[in-house]
Amino acid sequence: MRLIVMPLIIVGVALWLPMMHGRDSDAQSDRVRLFLTQVLEEIARDPASTSNAFKGSEPILVEAFRTRLGNSVGKLLTPVPRIDVRVGDFGTGSLGDATHTALAYYEGGEQIAVRVIARSNEPNVLLVGVFAPTVGEFAPSVTDSAGVR
Questions:
Q1: What's residue 148's pLDDT?
Q2: How far is 127 from 144, CA to CA, in rounded Å?
Q3: Per residue in 89-125, pLDDT tens?
Q4: Is 71 helix (H, G, I), strand (E, B) or coil?
Q5: N or C end of the chain: which has fewer CB within 10 A?
Q6: CB neighbours of residue 118 within 10 Å
Q7: Burial track 88-106 (b if 16+ CB lie within 10 A, e otherwise)
Q8: Model pTM?
Q9: Is the confidence at residue 71, as pLDDT, over 80?
């Protein structure tokens, strides 16, 4: 009996672990998307906004993000922010320490890519990079009108 049950338990755990990791990764991607949507909406209302949204992040990165976004706010064609979140760290200046890379912009505005760390055991989303994406860095993805994949 033990010869049958133990391998089944091992196989079950081996299948369960990646499934749980995938769920956490999806949950963190949704968390990053919601967080960035809130930040973009706040900056669109008040480009000089000084909220503590990126608490714990390097101030120079937060200022670079706000400046880039503030420069494009005047060109808005729609008030709906577009956010495309990808798992992993890639793009210009990538060091491999981010958990997610996201493209954040308003229709008609400058596209800004950010690298963030979002982990389920940490309350804050940390900004670890801001860059202007190149054409190949974010392949087109299927999105709905709210920018959700």
A1: 46
A2: 26
A3: 877 667 778 888 998 887 777 788 889 988 878 888 8
A4: helix
A5: N
A6: 22
A7: ebebeebeeebbbbbbbbb
A8: 0.68
A9: no
